[in-house]
Amino acid sequence: MFLLSIFISSLSSYGQVMDPPNWEVSVDKEKLEPGDTIVISFQAEVPADWYLYSSDFDPELGPMLTEINFGENQSYEVIGDLIPVDPKEKYDELWGGKYTYFTGIAEFQQRIKIRSSVPKIEAVAIYQICSDVTGQCIPFETDLVWNSKKEDFLQNQSASIKDGNDLISSKELKSFKNEFKIEEKEEGGAFLLTFFLLSFGAGLAALLTPCVFPMIPMTVTYFTKSNISRANGISQALLYGFSIILIYTLIGTVFSLLFGADFANFLSTHWLPNLFFFAVFLLFALSFFGLFEIRLPNSFVNKIDAQSNKGGLLGIFFMAFTLVLVGFSCTGPIAGTILLQAANGETIKPLIGMLGFSLAFALPFTLFAIFPHWLKSLPKSGGWLNTVKVVLGFVELALALKFLSIVDQVYHWEFLDRDIYLALWIVIFAFLGFYLLGKIQFPHEKKTESASVYRVISAILIFSFVVYLIPGLFGAPLKPLAGYLPPMSSQNFNMNTSTLVSENEVDSNITNCGTPKYNDLLELPHNIQGYFDYDQALECAQKQNKPIFIDFTGHGCVNCREMEATVWSDPRVLKRLKNDYVVVALYVDEKTELPESEWYVSAHDQKVKKTIGKQNLDFMIQKLNANAQPYYTLVDTSGSLLSAPKGYDLNVENFIEFLDNGLKEFDARQEKNIASTGIIQNKED
After folding, report:
1. Identical fold, 22-148 and 530-676
2. CA dihedral 326, 330, 332, 334 (to 10 degrees)
């Protein structure tokens, strides 16, 4: 848990401004003469767990393309288009098309004709980086300069958005959080904690297999009978448990090094590794069904076991190693499932997964060695252990379909649509239910005449899950399973013609405060009536006496779209947004240039902000000290924060609580203002 807390605390939170990547500029010739044609390269260091969009995909797709704009200069001439060097390609379900991107190092090249003996090449890189770990997207502008004399490089970050005195400053924001003891959620940490808990549960499941469970009393007996003192036995048991954790965590470390973020992007999208993973999961399932056993070579296991007889600390370590190897036929598929689930671009996730798995795996051996009288409460080994193994086989079979689905979606094979996927899951889990009731048996099992109470209860839960899946065949969203199911757009038969009736309803209490600016360019989802300019929204809020919901968003923000599709679509959230708030969406990547009279020089970076997006981002940075999207802020009619801002969070209940807390604070301030006005009036009377 201590290691986990360190990992989580190392992740950036939403309320901090992230620095732009480092850029380097170089040319392919050392000595330049007028008339030469050179290639100038721009390289950016993309942070770990982030990716940078390239410049060579359809600009209408959605994500923000990288642009490198050269200033007018008599010393050189730009030739041709900007060329990205070996970007990766990925199909995205939400955008409905393929885009290109970079991880690690991003490189762009531009051909330039030299006109002066001492050229100075100046450009501005406009780009966006995103992370699937934190759910954030951040747009940047970076000045790029190459001088043939000094061959130096200068870079400066610029952000973007509107200077105003309405929202509180970053210092006041910090004070606000301290006063109300509200902290922003670190979404990357939340994702890792969830994965840790799932891996911990998998470790507990691994204990209940016929390869491992019988070894618990055998191991505990060794520690309780082979030592002179109880204290010595306890210390050796603790070392034994720590060795198990160390071995599995080392496996996670090796996996992370071999299949880190760069290679994992290939793993997550290419047909070859995904079909391989599908086959591996299928083999795991068949192994659990008893068709064959996955074993390590006996000679290797015997050599490791021989090392455990040496005694001392090293002997205890090799005892733990022997346990890991002997139990491999049962634990290998489970641990392998965790590692393959972690192969999605995150280098720390395999470590967290193996830490959780091994902690649960080692815990019983250590605790029973410390408290040996607990052994009397353990159930005896028997057929129930094989039942656990077969149940895990059905789960492996269901998980295998996810990898096949990825290939189907990316390459548009269209043979595993959402309804077919659900049909297969329904059959798999229905068979699992019948197995638990004793209606299906495998050749290596003894025939059971009756089902135990535990089997019947388990079967009831499984069949309930099957019943829950069935409406999905007719278009039910099944939101808790959205991450494992193919997109709704692949559904061949959908009775739900109107996703949400409330989407097409506009509350009669909403009055129009004038035509929203930029409504011909921008839009809000789910027929929400709102604004795209903060000043206009503030004026409307004052007229209607309502709080403001500020949505800092972007065209290229995939997690903004996911929030809108998953969280905003909930009828309870829609009701609050439509009735209780004045909604304003501030797009930070909108490139529409404003009239010159609306330009201004930012106090943040002393740069002129000309576009809607740049002014919105500058507003966000200066007033909230943040630059990542999605980012949701609630303010009152004077522009003061009502609660701590909120970032990417797919939990609908959390979002509803966020909106309700803001509304309560707004009402409390209104009552306080009315009371203050009454006191003043009484004094005047």
Report:
1. no
2. -150
Neighbours of 175 (CB within 10 A): 12
* pLDDT class of 43 with cuts at 50, 70, 90: very high
pLDDT band of 540, cuts 50, 70, 90: very high
The total of other beta-carbon atoms located within 10 Å of residue 462's CB is 21
CA angle 643, 631, 593 (to 5 degrees): 125
Angle at 176 between CA 175 and CA 181, to 5 degrees: 100
DSSP-derived letter for residue 566 is I
pLDDT digits (tens, 9 = 90+) for 565-624: 788 988 999 999 999 999 999 988 787 889 999 998 888 778 888 889 889 988 888 888
Task: Read off the amino acid at residue 533.
Answer: D
pTM of the model: 0.45
Matching CATH number, 530-676, of 3.40.30.10, 3.90.480.20, 1.10.1040.10, 1.10.10.10: 3.40.30.10
Three-class DSSP labels, 272-308 = HHHHHHHHHHHHHHHHHCCCCCCCCCHHHHHHHHHHH
Cα 473 from Cα 117, distance rounded (Å):
70
Q: Are strands 582-587 and 548-553 parallel, antiparallel or unpaired?
A: parallel
SS3 of residue 139 by DSSP: strand
Tallying the residues shown for the chain, one arrives at: 685
> Of 506, 589, 582, which is closest to residue 544 (Cα–Cα)?
582
The answer to whether the CB of 642 falls within 8 A of the CB of 662 is: yes
In this structure, the number of other CB atoms found within 10 A of the CB of residue 654 comes to 12
**Burial status of residue 43 (CB atoms within 10 A of its CB: 0-12, 13-18, 19 or more):** middle
Structure token pair of residue 10: 């190392």
Q: In Å, how far are 56, 57, 66, 93, 95 from 99, measured between CA atoms?
A: 8, 5, 12, 11, 9
Q: Within 10 Å of residue 611's Cβ, how many Cβ atoms? A: 18
User: Residue 481 above 90 pLDDT?
Assistant: no
Q: Which stretch of DSSP H or E encloses residue 659? A: helix 652-684
Helices 453-469, 418-436: axis angle to 10 degrees equals 170
What is residue 452's three-state secondary structure? coil
- Beta-strand ranges (E) seen in 115-200 are 120-131, 136-147, 157-158
Contact 529, 549 (CB under 8 A): no
Query: Which of left, alpha, beta for 402 (phi over 0: left; psi -120 to 50: alpha)?
Result: alpha
Beta strand pairing status for 136-147 and 67-70? unpaired
Structure tokens at 146: 């190459």
Alpha carbon distance 656, 580 (integer Å): 12
Sign of CA dihedral 560, 14, 598, 21: negative
Pairing mode, strands 97-102 and 136-147: unpaired
Number of neighbouring beta carbons within 10 Å of residue 328: 18
C-alpha span between 473 and 358 (Å, rounded) = 38
CA-CA distance, 454 to 201, in Å (whole number)? 19
Beta bridge partners of 145: 122
CA proximity to 91, closest of 102, 99, 83, 80 = 99
Domain 22-148 is classified in which CATH homologous superfamily? Thiol:disulfide interchange protein DsbD, N-terminal domain (2.60.40.1250)
CA distance 473 to 492: 9
